[in-house]
Amino acid sequence: xxxxxxxxxxxxxxxxxxxxxxxxxxxxxxxxxxxxxxxxxxxxxxxxxxxxxxxxxxxxxxxxxxxxxxxxxxxxxxxxxxxxxxxxxxxxxxxxxxxxxxxxxxxxxxxxxxxxxxxxxxxxxxxxxxxxxxxxxxxxxxxxxxxxxxxxxxxxxxxxxxxxxxxxxxxxxxxxxxxxxxxxxxxxxxxxxxxxxxxxxxxxxx
Length: 206
Hints:
This protein has helices at residues 41-57, 125-134, 139-156, 173-176, 188-205, and strands spanning 3-10, 27-35, 60-67, 87-93, 104-112, 117-124, 170-171.
């Protein structure tokens, strides 16, 4: 499988986008979550709520499955085969970034270049926590946005980063602290594309 990893980053300077009205939910995606970062349950719940809110605005419902990780007795075994287009995998890790890096990647998505799709994404809690503290932002909100961004890459089957909206590559501290306007959602085109992809995959699966 030819695969590539695509990143979402934080850096000074970005733009804002226009708010779109929320369409009626038309699709559902299950997110199998592997909490290797041992994130507290309350923080994880709040971050999921933020990601779910973003996707609800795009007409898509997110369903969460807590999967067991080594050293823990909590969560499901998650041994069932993944359903194409319906099940995605989220790894939460806690890794120290490279010292002195100006651009810090909060997450990465693995896409198959030939199939133009993927199921695996990773979000790093360490830089999320550090950046949220510097920007005086809530860790759970920033984490939820990072998760939604990576889910977006997988559902859009694209590594592209537009100039505006949640899927932009660069987020600024001013945007995170609310000192600069920013739109933390999907464009109407992105939302429609994801819903259509889910409809097509559902028809094939049925």
